[in-house]
Amino acid sequence: MNNSWLKEAVKKIEADFNRSSDTHLFKISIPQLKNIDLYFKDESAHPTGSLKHRLARSLFLYALCNGYLNEKTTVIESSSGSTAVSEAYFAKMLGLKFIAVMPENTSKEKIAKIEFYGGYCHLVKNSTEVSNEAIKLAKNKNSYFMNQFLYAEKATDWRGNNNIAEAIFAQMKNERFSIPKWIVIGAGTGGTSATIGRYIRYKSLDTQVCVVDPEHSVFYDFYHNKVPADFETNFSSKIEGIGRPRVEKSFIKEIIDQMLKIPDSASIAAMHYLADFLDYKRGPSTGTNFCGVIEIIKQMQKKKEEGSIVTLLCDSGERYTNTYYNFNWLEKNNFFIKDYYNNIDNFFKKLK
Q1: Of 335, 219, 170, nearest in space to 210 by CA
Q2: Structure pTM?
Q3: 162 band by pLDDT with thresholds 50, 70 and 90
Q4: Are 122 and 137 in contact (CB under 8 A)?
Q5: Which residues contact residue 84 at a Cβ distance below 8 angstroms, ignoring those fewer than 6 apart?
Q6: First vs last C-alpha separation in the chain
Q7: d(C-alpha 217, C-alpha 224), whole Å
Q8: CB burial string 180-189: b at 16+ within 10 A, e below
Q9: How far is CA 197 from the centre of its chain?
Q10: Hey, what CATH topology would domain 53-152 get?
Q11: CB 30 within 8 Å of CB 293
Q12: Are 195 and 153 in contact (CB under 8 A)?
C-alpha cells in the first residue's frame, strides 16, 4: 500500500466534505395540520444530486481505511443508478477507474451522469443479475467490488460524525416539536434506516422509524416474517433507488418501528403531486416517502397525536424527465396514476 497515496485520497474526500454545507431541511406549510409539522430534508442538494452521495463517501472511506483500494484499483459497483453516480464522482476524484453494473432499463440521464464522471456502465437485462455480475467482474486483477448492499450499514458511523441522523436532529433543535415523532424513509441497501434507527437508540430519543417499500421488494415481507432472510424473488423494483429482490445484509429490521407497502403508481402519483403543488420536482423514491408520510399523518390524526414528521427528498427529478415524468412512458409501462393523484389531492383538501 502506497501510504502517501492513501493519505492524499482520504484528505481529498474529507476536503470535499468540508466544502459542502449540510443539506437544507424544509418546513412544509400546511395550515390545516395545526398539531403536525412536516419537514423535507433535501438530499438532492449534494454535489452528485442524491442521498447516495453520503453512502458513496462512507463506502470509499471504509474501503480506503481497510486497505482495499490502491492507486491502480478498478472500483466496481452494482447499482440502479444514484449510488453509481456518486461513486463515479469519488472515483474520478481519486483517479480510479469505475465500472457500474446496472439494469439496462436505468434512466439515460443517470447513465449519462456516470459517464460524465468518467465511469463505464456495464448493463444487464434484469436488476436481479447486477450483484452476481459485479462479483464476476471483481475477480479481475486489482478490482474491488464496493458492494453497497453488504457494507452500507457498516461503513457509516451511526453514532455521529455528521451522519444523516445527527444532521436531522441538529437541524430540528429549535423547532416546535424538536424531536420528530416519525422519520419516514425508503430502503435500498437499508443503510440509511440502520443509521437513523441506531442513532435514535444511541441517543435515547422518542422517535419512530417508518420504512416504506415499493412493490416487488422483499423487505416488507421479511419485516413481517412472511419470508426468510435468504429469500430471493425473480422480480425487481420499478421504483429506482429503493426496493430489492432479496434481503440485503445492511437491512436491519429490528430497529424499524413500522413498514408500509406502497403501490408503484401511488409513488409516481405522489412525486407528480409534489412537483405540481409544492414545486419539489424529485424522483420516484421521494414519492414513495411522501405516500408514507400521508399514512403516518392519518394514523396520528386518528390517535389525536401531535408532533413532527421528517422525510427525505432523495434525488432530483431531472434524472427522470424521459421516464417517470413522461406520460407516454408511464402508460407504456402500465403505471396509472390518475386515481392515486386525485386521492392525494382530496386528502389535503379535506384536512381540518
Answers
A1: 219
A2: 0.90
A3: low
A4: yes
A5: 77, 100, 102, 110, 114, 119, 121
A6: 63
A7: 13
A8: bbbbbbbbbb
A9: 15
A10: Rossmann fold (3.40.50)
A11: no
A12: yes
Handedness of CA 21, 88, 279, 241 (dihedral sign): negative
Neighbours of 259 (CB within 10 A): 20
DSSP notation for 190-239: SHHHHHHHHHHHHTT---EEEEEEETT-SHHHHHTTSS-TT-B-S---SS
In the numeric block, which cell numbers belong to residue 91? 472515483
The x, y and z cell numbers of residue 32, run together, are 390545516
Contacts of residue 236, defined as CB under 8 A and 6 or more positions apart, other chains included, come to: 103, 126, 127, 128, 216, 243, 245
Torsion from C-alpha of 178, 180, 186, 190, nearest 10 degrees: 90
Q: Which of 19-33, 121-135, 242-256 is most confident?
A: 242-256
Angle, helix 338-349 to helix 264-277, in steps of 10 degrees: 50
The pLDDT score that the predictor gives to residue 158 is: 80
Q: Which amino acid is at 296?
A: I
Same fold, 3-47+162-349 and 53-152: yes
Pick the CATH number of 3-47+162-349 from 1.10.287.380, 3.40.50.1980, 3.40.1380.10, 3.40.50.1100: 3.40.50.1100
Average pLDDT taken over every residue of the chain: 92
Task: State how far the Cα of 45 lies from the Cα of 56, in Å rounded to an integer.
Answer: 15
Strand (E) or helix (H) holding 87: helix 82-94
Residue 89, classed as helix, strand or coil, is helix
